[in-house]
Design a protein that fits this description.
The complex is a heterodimer of chains A (391) and B (181). Chain A is of the alpha/beta class and 391 residues long. Chain A has 13 helices and 18 strands. Chain A has 2 domains: 223 residues, Medium-chain alcohol dehydrogenases, catalytic domain (Quinone Oxidoreductase, Chain A, domain 1), CATH 3.90.180.10; 161 residues, Rossmann fold (3-Layer(aba) Sandwich), CATH 3.40.50.720. The chains are: A alpha/beta (391), B mainly alpha (181). Chains A and B meet through strand 1, strand 2, helix 6, helix 7 and helix 13 of A and strand 1 and helix 6 of B.
Chain lengths: 391, 181
């Protein structure tokens, strides 16, 4: 089969690889009908996340049709079922899964000794990601083996196009969780840093959760225009001061809820010296992340507010203003997304026409063009916001 | 065909049968080579500064050579990073500094002026290579003034924003505070 394979920094190739096989009674194989490039794939593309090996298949936003199931499926999945594959692999049986904390499933990381060492405790196995999370082959391929498939799936009905359902795998529940963990009340102003695909979903989620005002921060006109279309007031951080503008829009109080959808690769600008210093330190491996957004959120958030982190961080961040964080009594909520915690509700909202997540797609191309699209997406060429690949 | 990466695959995981074309262009490989060259040269300048100055008949300039060594190492690291273009331009600038320093040693009373002339020639050649690769690896990001597509019609709310906001506010007002989140 064809698959997008990681060969090193900025080197992804469309290789021919052997087809996946059932390895465990709880496995299923799907024929991929649609998959997508995620913003966090770019961290792997840049080799900023440790634990990638040449030959790893990329991709964690995937859906398709079940073509083979293991013997232990217990009737939960059968050939012909149409499923979206959540990016977190879950067993559905461990204590964390029972609590709904699916992204920290205690069972599915097959290389848990690495995660135990790196994070203190293992987290769930993830598709197409680092070997710290199991090194499972990803879904930017023609076929995908889904381990623990009896739990790791979202069954979706026929009659709704892939484009509306695909993002249940990651970005829609990720944006939703980012907003949900803000405990939004009707008087809240929610500020969202980063208007990439997850940021766009977070904007819509904050609106659906009843925020009074949503403010979106980015620098790219196409992303800001899409944010505005979704109901956000926008701030272009290249032309205006984020802190001044946020204070102006909140009568000097600051936003009650702040969401980071930018993560570890915050934009580097000479006018923000901390971003330059972070980039220099990242280059010589003195720091793994560029946490400018976290610093800014802590500074501008209204005392007593909530900071929600959906953007990916990989390791160590320097110069965190813990004094401001503590004295302002802020709460920080983070985490990879507990996808299956949210998807029943989100699927219902799609079916009822409350939201159509396909608005975010700007490019649909064959899988073979995937490697080039990584560059297009990274360089923000052709006003690219979200790429869907068709195997 | 044998693929080294197949050795580390977990049992049963897909293995590469045939590799596809690489995203890396020849200029990317050259940038990488220049990056490692820069680090190697920088290490020599930093740790064997006296040897360098003796070879060039420029004794007494060891501190300057060490400083150049540090500069070389940093521009080498930058050339190996995702910001390789900045690293290559840093190398071009560094070549200018190297040339200026060498010119100061190209005096009639320097018994090693032949070595200095040879070094200058090498710096000139490498500077041309650095310049060429820096040009070829220019990031393909659109310039700030490029025309961009805008997406003002993409709300994602089939029922419209106002209706969605009203519905959301209505819903949130009917949830008791103790069961929110």
């Amino acid at each position: 089969m064809k698959a997008l394979v990681w060969h090193g920094k900025e080197d992804i190739r469309c290789d021919t690889v052997t087809d996946p096989e059932i390895q465990d009674p709880r496995d299923a194989i799907i024929k991929v009908t649609s998959c997508a490039i995620c913003g966090s794939d770019l961290h792997l593309f840049h080799n900023f996340i440790p634990g990638m090996l040449p030959g790893d298949i990329m991709g964690h936003e995937t859906m398709g049709e079940v073509v083979e199931v293991g013997s232990g499926m217990d009737g939960k999945l059968k050939k012909g079922d149409r499923i979206v594959v959540p990016f977190t692999i879950i067993c559905g049986e461990c204590d964390q899964c029972k609590r709904g904390n699916f992204s920290v499933c205690e069972t599915t990381n097959r290389k848990r000794h690495l995660a135990d060492k790196a994070f203190g405790h293992t987290t769930a196995g993830l598709f197409g990601y680092t070997h710290l999370t199991g090194g499972y082959p990803g879904g930017q391929a023609e076929y995908l083996r889904v381990p623990f498939a009896d739990a790791t799936h979202i069954k979706v009905p026929d009659g709704i196009p892939d484009e509306q359902l695909l993002f249940l795998s990651d970005i829609f529940p990720t944006g939703w969780q980012a907003a949900a963990q803000c405990d939004i009340v009707p008087t809240d102003t929610v500020a969202i840093w980063g208007c990439g695909p997850v940021g766009q979903m977070a904007i819509r989620s904050a609106i659906l959760l009843g925020a009074n005002q949503v403010i979106a921060i980015d620098r790219l006109p196409e992303r800001l225009s899409m944010a505005e279309a979704g109901g956000a007031t926008t701030i272009n951080f290249e032309t205006e001061s984020v802190v001044d503008r946020l204070n102006e829009l909140t009568d000097g109080r600051g936003p009650e809820k702040c969401i980071d959808c930018a993560g570890m690769e915050a934009h580097v600008m000479a006018s923000q010296p901390d971003t330059v210093l972070d980039r220099a330190k990242q280059m010589v491996m003195l720091e793994s992340d560029r946490p400018h957004v976290l610093r800014e959120m802590i500074y501008v958030c209204r005392p007593g507010g909530i900071i929600s982190v959906a953007g990916v961080y990989s390791g160590f961040s320097d110069k965190m203003p813990m004094g401001a964080f503590m004295n302002k009594g802020l709460t920080m909520r983070t985490g990879q997304t507990h996808v299956n915690r949210w998807t029943d509700d989100l699927l219902r909202r799609i079916e009822e026409g409350e939201i159509d997540p396909s608005f975010v797609i700007t490019h649909t191309v064959p899988l073979e063009m995937g490697p080039e699209m990584y560059k297009v997406f990274r360089d923000k060429r052709d006003s690219c916001v979200k790429v869907v690949l068709k195997p | 065909m044998f693929h080294f990466s197949n050795i580390v695959r977990s049992e049963g995981d897909p293995k590469i049968i045939e590799g596809g074309p690489s995203l890396k262009q020849p200029e990317d490989q050259l940038a990488r080579a220049l990056g490692w060259f820069s680090i190697g040269l920088g290490a020599i300048e930093l740790f064997a500064a006296r040897r360098v100055t003796e070879t060039l008949g420029m004794e007494g300039k060891e501190t300057l050579v060490r400083a150049f060594g540090v500069r070389e190492i940093f521009s080498g690291i930058l050339s190996l990073s995702v910001d390789k273009n900045a690293g290559l331009w840093a190398r071009v600038g560094g070549d200018g500094l190297d040339a200026a320093a060498l010119l100061s040693g190209l005096t009639a009373d320097n018994p090693k002026k032949g070595n200095v002339a040879l070094a200058l020639l090498m710096v000139g050649g490498i500077a041309m290579l650095d310049y060429r690769v820096a040009q070829d690896t220019k990031p393909q990001r659109p310039p700030p003034d490029a025309r961009r597509k805008l997406y003002p019609g993409r709300s994602g709310f089939p029922k419209g924003i106002s209706a969605t906001r009203d519905r959301a506010k209505d819903a949130i007002n009917h949830i008791p505070a103790n069961v929110r989140s």
